[in-house]
Amino acid sequence: MRLLAIIALLVVAPVSAHAQSCPQPLRDAQRLVLVVSATMNGSTASLRRFARASPAAPWQADGGPVSALIGRKGVAWAHAFRSFARKGEPVKVDGDKRAPAGFFRIGRPFGFGASQQPHYLQIAQGTVCVDDPASPAYNSITSRAAVGWKVHGENMWRVREYRRGLLVDYPTARSVRAGSCIFIHVRRPGAPGTAGCVALPEPEVAALQDFAQPGAVLAILPRQALARFKGCLPEF
Questions:
Q1: What whole-number distance in Å separates Cα of residue 228 and Cα of residue 22?
Q2: Which of 44, 50, 145, 216 could form a disulfide with 59 if both were Cys (CB 3.0 to 4.6 A apart)?
Q3: Which domain holds residue 206?
């Protein structure tokens, strides 16, 4: 029995030790939505879902692959993950039409209609996501009544693609215009890409709203960067 215990420690210890070096919030995640683009500049990607029993357990496939739209000009490293960028790879700024590369907690489900989902955000007239770096409300969802009409932002109730979606807990920096208002939302037929979000067919967005409820992490990465997180991500 003692020999078996030693063997078990030898098998588990390297995995746990390696897991400690994985970037947060991926390190502690038990649900993962992995979005991988073929290049830094492509506007399409493949989305897969994964789950695991604990942070030390291996990832298991839970759905996909599904074709997704990302930024019209591809991806760029989020400011919080710019240390993973290699020479020549862009870092995200507002207005670059690129989705942010990195690891982000998935937040509240949202949509136009009512829902019984926990923490659901119903988009009402006046709901706005502020993308104005001059505003203290930058990268937050508020109302026109609170910020007025001079502050630049997305009037979410007017965007049909936002009839169903998920917020992304996107860490940003207003001082360097590091990006704002990142969502998972419905894909518009014929669209060449997004302004920086992840877009899917509506049934897939609905499935993700259910999948992400216990807490999930969104990973957006170009294929060339997968090896930089070896041991942290599922085999792709």
A1: 10
A2: 50
A3: 2-229
Q: Is 150 a member of any domain?
A: yes
Tens of pLDDT along 77-96? Answer: 999 999 999 999 999 999 99
- Identity at 69, one-letter amino acid code: L
pTM for this model (two decimals): 0.90
DSSP secondary structure letter of residue 203:
H
Would 205 be classed as within a structural domain?
A: yes
Task: Give domain status of residue 35, yes or no.
Answer: yes
Q: What is the dihedral of CA 134, 137, 138, 139, to 10 degrees?
A: -170
Domain count across the chain: 1
220 DSSP assignment:
E
